[in-house]
Amino acid sequence: MTIQTSIFSCQGGLNTESPPLSLPTGSLVYCVNFESGLSGGYKRMQGYQAFDGRSSGTVLAVPGEGPVRGIWFYNDKVHAFRNAVGGATCAMFDSNAGGWTSRKTGLTANGTYEFSSYNFTGALSEKKMYGVSGVHKGFEWDGVTWKDITTGSVPDKPEHIATHKNHLFYTFGASLQNSGIGTPDTWTLRAGASDIGIGESIKGLLSYRGDTLVVYGQNKTMMLYGSSNLNWELKTLSSSGGGIARSQSEIAGDAFIASENGLVSLASTQNFGDFVTAVVSKQIKRLFPGKSALFSLVVRNKQQVRVYFDNKSVITATVVDGQNGKAIEYTRQILDHQFTCGVSAIDSTGTEVIFAGAEDGFVYKLDTGTSFVGNAYTSALRLPFNYLNGISQKKRMRKARLELDAPAAFSFNFGIDFNYGATEPANYSSQQAMAGGALYGASEYGSAIYGGGMSGLCEVNVQGVGQSVSMLVSHTSATDAAWTLNNVILEYSLIGRQK
What we know:
Largest sheet: 7 strands, antiparallel
Structural class: mainly beta
Shape: globular
């Protein structure tokens, strides 16, 4: 009996909305704790570990009580804000070789912090940290001295922040205000300060490509052009939608905002002039709880935007090079901890670092290690049901070959379903086969063992008959390094048409 072969690449990301027959063969209908690779494939996500600045010893939470209320990376240190015990005030700590060190106490409690680092002087080593919390004055921190910034607004409690065109920008409700040019602590008209109303409460600011300031509320998005109060020009980009606070980000030449309808591309909004049309996450609509977004951050070396939600879930959008230009692939992660704020930055060695503050008062270093703070986590994915070029043709499955990249041996679970799950999964006995330096043993959702080199073409002998077939791969470990599924090759025989 002639053996047929079908080969497809693992790419396209998660799609929970398209009709089954229109799904690309290498896309995903289910995904947890995988992410898309820039050159294709689905990679098990890296873990995260608790952090306080020390290289050894028991890691401690940021002193105080309640969640971490803000986190920033400045002067190669993590700066974290948390309410003091009793909840009457808030304090700032930074990470050091001895752990968390108190730097500022007596701040107003229960703030939600945002930050920006900027050099207003042009001199070397003059970049300073600026922040707002919505409950007290904005501030400047240079690593030694804390300075409250007085704007004259009543109340003087800025909510959102941006540094743009040598100005410091704050928002107060529907008011967008900027400092004097080059003088972040001067807010007089004579020095170049100004106040612009946008007609609704502002949710966030983003200096887009360093040239335009994005200003968005819940229902509209605007762009501020110009270089000073002499030529500021505020134009409406969209009057059909805005975004969620602290969900703005910029990666790969585009800006993104998480909205109630999904992730929005500002480049697409500019092209089409409609905010809803510019939603670029329609393929995962049911998995994107926009109202529950807490914050987003970028991962530069992976070209990712990650949106963190209040149910411990994360939606990751990876900007990849597609056949028709840039494309976005989505994956989903489920964490053990509820993150409340985060930051990604480049340290003094040029290395990207990513941190998140959590509901439990700890700070975690992301994309590091092989566990969730020592605990095993499960990664799983399911590929779409594939008719293998014959909708009414029955196939007897023979073998699945999986092309994997891995730095070390690992084991995982593998299973096959037929006919959209209408029939029982394939029942095949435990087997072992050697191919491409890899050893596999498989059973119904059984285990397979992979080893031998950085990559390999590896085999699983399978059994079962059906018109369509779908594969499930899952892996649970606290010690296995991240690995990638790149391609799948299916071998089968045609045994007649379904009547």
